[in-house]
């Protein structure tokens, strides 16, 4: 394997992908690469990924590396973290079978991941998943005790946009969010629900031609252009009221309200819609499984359990809905539809005098041609 390209470095993948250019080599420090990070790197059409950490540590079955390899992107794994000190933005490097060279000087060496290695390591993670599940459940119970006021009551900020008796669509940048958003696009156009983008989910709405009505989150993974689109802005703050995301809002000369609460931004987006009287809450790209939350780096998902218990009667999860539209139409069904559509035509023709006369003429002509 020989790859030549210029590098771009970033210890946080979600920040790095904003700057990456097509054909560059991404140098990251991302333990257990998740699918969302992999998709972001693929979109940027990078030549290769050099990871200072293990791309699969064995903690849980993270599928990001498999996705990268399937897209034809090489992975040089578990390289010394000192690579961030040795290389600078735009440096031209060569990768030769795991060796990383600059001006023919060997700087570092990592492991070249291939499909076989990735599948073996993913298989090995299954042995550890029971341990992680036990930790996960214990942590979730601990969080539930601390976050139970999410069910009992929480202070909801006043907002300008009316949600009462309306459909609300909440978009989170989670697994398959693009496919699911595309699948519900017709629903958005026909019903015109209030659109809430959770951080990067607001960019996803814009990408598909929709304008978010409300943007809620930490404001750390969303473009300046979308923030300035005119949507009502709500910054997710810590329970003590501290809201780091407000610094960015003020830097853009924008105004926003704060929503102090534990849990995730997608949780408080659902709470906002529910407490403001939404008729229906449709969620796209939200995190719902243990793997989702392990990838997200959250030790427990108590807030999500509690929030979904509270809003469950109004919540419709669109996760995976795109797969409903991918099944092939079976020939048997096509034949049945054709037969059903021909029945009324045949019935009309059977009682039609002109048709009877035409049929007799055809039979006579046929007998003449074959000599009867």
From TrEMBL:
Signal peptide (from-to): none
GO biological process entries: thiamine diphosphate biosynthetic process
Membrane spanning stretches: 333-352
Keyword Kinase: yes
Any matching Pfam family: SteA-like_C
InterPro entries reported for this sequence: Put_SteA-like, SteA-like_C, TPK_catalytic, TPK_catalytic_sf
Residue span, SteA-like C-terminal domain: 319-367
Key word Transmembrane present: yes
Residue ranges annotated for the Thiamin pyrophosphokinase catalytic domain, each copy included: 193-228
SUPFAM superfamilies: Thiamin pyrophosphokinase, catalytic domain (SSF63999)
GO terms assigned for molecular function: ATP binding; kinase activity; thiamine diphosphokinase activity
UniProt keywords, alphabetically: ATP-binding, Kinase, Membrane, Nucleotide-binding, Transferase, Transmembrane, Transmembrane helix
Protein name: Uncharacterized membrane-anchored protein
Naturally occurring in which organism (per UniProt): Orenia metallireducens
Upper taxonomic lineage: Bacteria, Bacillati, Bacillota, Clostridia, Halanaerobiales
């Amino acid at each position: 394997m020989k790859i030549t390209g210029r590098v771009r470095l970033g210890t946080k993948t979600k920040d790095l992908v904003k700057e990456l250019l097509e054909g560059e080599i991404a140098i990251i420090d991302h333990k257990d690469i998740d699918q969302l990070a992999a998709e972001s790197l693929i979109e940027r059409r990078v030549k290769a990924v050099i990871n200072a950490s293990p791309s699969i540590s064995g903690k849980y079955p993270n599928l990001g590396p498999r996705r990268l390899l399937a897209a034809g992107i090489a992975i040089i794994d578990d390289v010394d973290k000192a690579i961030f000190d040795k290389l600078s933005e735009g440096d031209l490097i060569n990768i030769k079978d795991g060796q990383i060279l600059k001006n023919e000087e060997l700087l570092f060496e990592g492991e070249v991941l291939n499909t076989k290695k990735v599948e073996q390591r993913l298989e090995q993670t299954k042995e550890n998943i029971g341990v992680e599940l036990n930790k996960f459940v214990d942590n979730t119970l601990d969080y539930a005790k601390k976050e139970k006021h999410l069910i009992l009551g929480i202070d909801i900020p006043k907002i300008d946009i009316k949600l009462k008796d309306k459909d609300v669509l909440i978009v989170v940048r989670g697994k398959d969010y693009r496919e699911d958003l595309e699948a519900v696009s017709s629903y958005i156009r026909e019903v015109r629900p209030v659109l809430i983008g959770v951080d990067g989910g607001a960019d996803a709405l814009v990408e598909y031609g929709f304008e978010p009505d409300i943007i809620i989150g930490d404001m750390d993974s969303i473009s300046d252009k979308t923030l300035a689109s005119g949507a009502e802005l709500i910054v997710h703050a810590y329970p003590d009221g501290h809201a780091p995301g407000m610094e960015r809002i003020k830097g853009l000369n924008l105004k926003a309200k704060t929503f102090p609460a534990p849990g995730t931004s997608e949780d408080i987006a659902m709470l906002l819609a529910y407490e403001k009287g939404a008729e229906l809450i449709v969620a796209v790209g939200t995190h719902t499984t243990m793997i989702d939350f392990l990838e997200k780096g959250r030790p427990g998902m108590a807030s999500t359990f509690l929030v979904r218990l509270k809003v469950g009667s109004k919540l419709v999860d669109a996760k995976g809905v795109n797969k409903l539209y991918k099944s092939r139409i079976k020939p048997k069904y096509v034949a049945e539809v054709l037969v059903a559509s021909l029945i009324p035509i045949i019935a009309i023709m059977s009682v039609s005098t002109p048709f009877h006369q035409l049929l007799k003429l055809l039979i006579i002509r046929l007998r003449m041609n074959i000599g009867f």
